[in-house]
Amino acid sequence: MRTALSIAGSDSCGGAGIQADLKTMTMNGVYAMTAVTALTAQNTTGVRAIQEATPEFLGQQIDAVFEDIFPDAVKIGMVSASELIRVIAKKLRDYEAKHIVVDPVMVATSGSVLLKTDAVETLEKELLPLAEVVTPNIPEAEILSGMAIKTKEDMLAAAEKISKTYGCAVLLKGGHSINDANDYLYANGEGHWFEGKRIDNPNTHGTGCTLSSAIASNLAKGYELPEAVKRAKDYISGALGAMLDLGKGSGPMKHAFDLTGEFAKEVR
Ligand SMILES: Nc1ncnc2c1ncn2[C@@H]1O[C@H](COP(=O)(O)OP(=O)(O)OP(=O)(O)O)[C@@H](O)[C@H]1O
Ligand SMILES: Cc1ncc(CO)c(N)n1
């Protein structure tokens, strides 16, 4: 069985963060492991409190995983502080980790800030150069590229700029801001649109976490990046399309929707 490690924050309401990653990786047929960067007291309406792991304890979790069950892919989500980012980067370099997917989580769907301002630079310098692919949404890509992104053309230019600056592929997600379900992948000097069908579902808590974990799962299974993205988009469409409706805010998706027919073959 292929394996994947999520290095991310815990979401007490279960729809984003580590909890979304575990569900997504399991549903995508890989064995899921975790290194928790922070606990959040959070629900669908917002983040109430954050308790970070110490850098030392985060390092111990990563060591425990790599020394025993070496992951075939690694997904990195919420890492709120520079010292935690530095530990992750050092460990991933030391272990020569493969297939690293970085979701540069900065702000939650509910609007809560999940990355300290001074940590953005550390993320750019230390983590992005290790990534096979980074998956910003539009506001995150504006920060990483230093450009305003208002149109599809801006998306192309920003993705290329981020890729060239940090030496990794970029999947720029259009969701929420520009043409919703369509994402743009820039990798190895080539661009490609992934056109998803927009699902009319206001419950999008954890979509970014889920997409990046599904991509990591597919890379762990040996798919090349464009195919890994295509399959991840199919998975998120299934989870959104199951129309779960929980909580008072933007609710979680149904990660464990019924995998049937052609779709089941796609995901496995
Ligand atoms: N209504 C929708 N219908 C279909 N696909 C969607 C919809 N909304 C978002 N997506 C897809 O979900 C994936 C995650 O994108 P999104 O832009 O929501 O991430 P994000 O903003 O990082 O998420 P988060 O809110 O968890 O931080 C992308 O592939 C996007 O195209
Ligand atoms: C723990 C955590 N990670 C990521 C996100 C982004 O959706 C969130 N809301 N919570």
UniProtKB/TrEMBL annotation:
CDD domains per UniProt: HMPP_kinase (cd01169)
Alphabetized Pfam families for the sequence: Phos_pyr_kin
List the InterPro entries hit by this protein, alphabetically: HMP/HMP-P_kinase_dom (IPR004399), PM/HMP-P_kinase-1 (IPR013749), Ribokinase-like (IPR029056)
Which positions, given as ranges, span the membrane?
none
Gene Ontology molecular function terms on file: ATP binding; hydroxymethylpyrimidine kinase activity; phosphomethylpyrimidine kinase activity
Pathway info: Cofactor biosynthesis; thiamine diphosphate biosynthesis; 4-amino-2-methyl-5-diphosphomethylpyrimidine from 5-amino-1-(5-phospho-D-ribosyl)imidazole: step 3/3; Cofactor biosynthesis; thiamine diphosphate biosynthesis; 4-amino-2-methyl-5-diphosphomethylpyrimidine from 5-amino-1-(5-phospho-D-ribosyl)imidazole: step 2/3
What's an example GO BP annotation here? thiamine biosynthetic process
CC per GO annotation: cytosol
- Broadest EC class? transferase
Q: Which UniProt keywords apply?
A: ATP-binding, Kinase, Nucleotide-binding, Thiamine biosynthesis, Transferase
Q: Which SUPFAM superfamilies match?
A: Ribokinase-like (SSF53613)
Catalytic activity reads:
4-amino-5-hydroxymethyl-2-methylpyrimidine + ATP = 4-amino-2-methyl-5-(phosphooxymethyl)pyrimidine + ADP + H(+); 4-amino-2-methyl-5-(phosphooxymethyl)pyrimidine + ATP = 4-amino-2-methyl-5-(diphosphooxymethyl)pyrimidine + ADP
Its EC number(s): 2.7.1.49, 2.7.4.7
Query: Domain Pyridoxamine kinase/Phosphomethylpyrimidine kinase: where?
Result: 11-253
Family the entry assigns = Belongs to the ThiD family.
Name of this protein = Hydroxymethylpyrimidine/phosphomethylpyrimidine kinase
Q: Which gene encodes it?
A: thiD
